[in-house]
């Protein structure tokens, strides 16, 4: 690009920036759009992606032509830099959107080992046996809180018991459970 054409394009960009000159913009679009598309396709962008990025670059030219400084670079350098950066952004978005098939969080959990299953079942049976030794009103509150996920306030509203009573019964139940489990008050030879 020679000095005359460089000055001509700078003048057209100035006309777009100051006057929103559509004729100047059309001339810039006709000249730069095919060159930008070719550049992007050489950077491994597909046809549709290259056309989309060119559209973005030209919209930037229309909206932000006032940011172009002819003393710092030629208009072509400015536009090609914008195109290159937009292409990088598109590639990053594509990589970020792609899922890694071997990502540990996406893989199904391994089935539990047989001995872990037996231990878990034994532990559950011990807890069930200990629960059976508690008063019915405490067991009911524990089930509502931990099996049904209700808050103390919800339990109070559902049972008609004062909130303090609900809290104290649950606390007492846990104390008794702890004692039963620690002292072996439950037959753990199952």
Automatic annotation (TrEMBL):
Domain RNA polymerase sigma-70 region: 32-95
Domain of life per record: Bacteria
Domain RNA polymerase sigma factor 70 region 4 type, residue spans: 125-177
Pfam families registered for this protein in UniProt: Sigma70_r2, Sigma70_r4_2
Record key words, sorted: Sigma factor, Transcription, Transcription regulation
Coiled-coil residue spans: none
Similarity-based family: Belongs to the sigma-70 factor family. ECF subfamily.
Record's protein name: RNA polymerase sigma-70 factor (ECF subfamily)
Source organism per UniProt: Rhizobium herbae
Source taxonomy: Bacteria, Pseudomonadati, Pseudomonadota, Alphaproteobacteria, Hyphomicrobiales
């Amino acid at each position: 690009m020679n000095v005359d054409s460089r000055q001509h394009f700078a003048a057209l960009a100035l006309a777009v920036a100051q006057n929103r000159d559509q004729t100047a913009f059309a001339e810039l679009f006709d000249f730069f759009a095919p060159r930008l598309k070719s550049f992007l396709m050489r950077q491994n962008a597909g046809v549709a992606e290259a056309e989309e990025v060119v559209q973005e670059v030209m919209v930037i030219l229309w909206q932000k032509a006032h940011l172009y400084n002819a003393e710092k670079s030629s208009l072509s350098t400015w536009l090609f830099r914008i195109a290159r950066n937009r292409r990088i952004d598109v590639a990053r978005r594509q990589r970020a959107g792609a899922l890694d098939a071997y990502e540990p969080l996406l893989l199904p959990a391994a089935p539990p080992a047989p001995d872990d299953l037996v231990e878990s079942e034994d532990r559950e049976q011990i807890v069930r046996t200990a629960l059976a030794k508690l008063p019915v009103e405490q067991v009911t509150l524990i089930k509502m809180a931990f099996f049904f996920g209700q808050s103390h306030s919800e339990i109070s509203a559902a049972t008609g018991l004062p909130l303090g009573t609900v809290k104290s019964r649950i606390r007492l139940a846990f104390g008794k459970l702890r004692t039963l489990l620690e002292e072996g008050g439950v037959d753990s030879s199952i």
